[in-house]
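Justification of resources, computational component.

The compute hours requested in this renewal are based largely on the per-chain cost of generating structure records like the one below. Each record pairs the submitted sequence with a full structure-token output. That output is archived, and it is also reused by downstream analysis tasks.
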Amino acid sequence: MQVLITGATGYLGTAMLEAVPDGVEAIPVGFSRSERSVDITDSTALEAALADHLPDVIVHLAAVSEVAKAVADPSVASAVNAAGAGVVAAAAAARGIRLVALSSDVVFDGATGPYSEQSTPNPINDYGRSKLAGEEAVRSAHPQALVVRTSVLVGRDRAQRHPFSAFVLEQAAAGTEIVLYENERRNFYPVTHAATAVWECVGTDASGLLHIGAVESASRFEFGRQLIAAAGFDPALALAAIGPADRPSDLTLDVGLARGVLGTPMPTMSEVIAEVIADGTVT
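The structure output for this chain reads:
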């Protein structure tokens, strides 16, 4: 099986390339940092890449993935996260290629969690709006696609992306106090588990929506404090604060469906923290 991965130089893409299953040839493409550079907003360039590689499956990860960047330039976020997703979906559908596309819990408003796959999205910031538009573009152009929503991915630093967990541990190791939000609950999920879950999705014919993440949510403050303690540092370094108004307060995902259909763990928070600590020892 040949699997083309867009955004393969990003955080999840890098983790997926570390865990390619037997019998799969991964074809990584990126925009600015990849040997195979493809602009997903350019339908001609994307079609040329598909003609060159003839993949059986596309895993679409390419995105403007930082809230701050989306807020600073909503037009770029919309071009990549919404229009770009539509270009990928249309090209995949035209060639009969299976598509697994990644989305985010930020498509919800955080007011009425937990959110299942049947919950109605209502994003409150430009990043969430661009991701929801991308979901809609994918499902319109490629009805058999699988859209996978996940939460904050944690683990060691990969692809120079400096994840939340790595920042917390670096600050704690230096004895520096860390301000962490109490009003933003997420299903923090190890990037290693997310990579395995997406690979598992590639091997199925599932379509529609699927939520993956930890089975329980926590605020950034709760998660950070427990991570600091588990790493052997002083949990008092974590300082509670209230985050910006454009951050949804409770994005807890219901991952019951994924627990039923995937073998990949949807772990408890303590299991997430243990995996982050274990992942951090990899060199």
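The first helix runs from residue 11 to 17. The chain has a mean pLDDT of 93.
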